[in-house]
Automatic annotation (TrEMBL), chains A, B:
The gene is LOC108039630. It comes from Drosophila rhopaloa. SUPFAM superfamilies: Roadblock/LC7 domain. SMART domains: Robl_LC7 (SM00960). Pfam families: Robl_LC7 (PF03259). This is Uncharacterized protein LOC108039630. PANTHER family: DYNEIN LIGHT CHAIN ROADBLOCK. Residues 16-104 form the Roadblock/LAMTOR2 domain. It comes from the Eukaryota.
Amino acid sequence: MFLDTQKRPPRTLRYVEKAFKEVKSRKNVRDVVILNDRGNPVKSTMDQDDAVQLAGLFQAIRGRLERGMSKIDPTDELLMLRVRTKTNEVILVPDSKITVLVVQNAHDNFEK
Amino acid sequence: MFLDTQKRPPRTLRYVEKAFKEVKSRKNVRDVVILNDRGNPVKSTMDQDDAVQLAGLFQAIRGRLERGMSKIDPTDELLMLRVRTKTNEVILVPDSKITVLVVQNAHDNFEK
């Protein structure tokens, strides 16, 4: 009401930083992209174009999935989406505030 | 050329039966839907309407994903798609001949 920051509490930034740091430190994690509640990348290890491309694709799939799921069972809720390919695994985890996208190496020894 | 069955070799049916049986026997597997190369359910534990609805949704997501992936890395290939929700986990595994959709219980003790 008085301040713009009330709409987007300061905790959000700390929350993003915390999630980013935690996920990034995990073994085999190659890239991390944190999306805000509008689906835009707000923090990422990738360059901006790549982050936007990946985020756009996964947000589109998530949207399609959630629309489809709501027809099958409106009470159900998406917790995690994992896409395993020959070269990597992309994991999307929605959260109340943010969405975390993680790119993992497909093989433990891929870049080691 | 001489027989219609040459287009769709008899092995396909045995392959479907084998995959169906193998996947169905696994722990926590609730439902199995086998799709042919056109994305239509050919064998399923679900009733036909539910199988078609689930197959339609997951084929749509897969299509969107593969189109998006080909822009990011044309040499990459989808091996597995997993969707974890509050109540279950749906796994899509493409194969050269068929696509296997598996619905697993989210909780080990969900129906036990």
